[in-house]
Amino acid sequence: MTIFIIPENAGPYEIIRSMAGxxxxxxxxxxxxxxxxxxxxxxxxxQICQRLNDGDHDGTIRA
Length: 63
Hints:
The chain is an alpha+beta fold. The chain contains 1 helix and 5 strands; from the N terminus they run ββββαβ.
């Protein structure tokens, strides 16, 4: 599993479909605060997105 560093005030997250068809958890920011997390399943993406939007992380998240 990979550990992703989540910046402060990264904004709301949403789930999008990548060109390969896999889900991505992504925010709409650009530059250093942009976050893209590739997931294997839609269920995993929903769980990660919910945790990020609720703020249930300590600056890192494992995916």
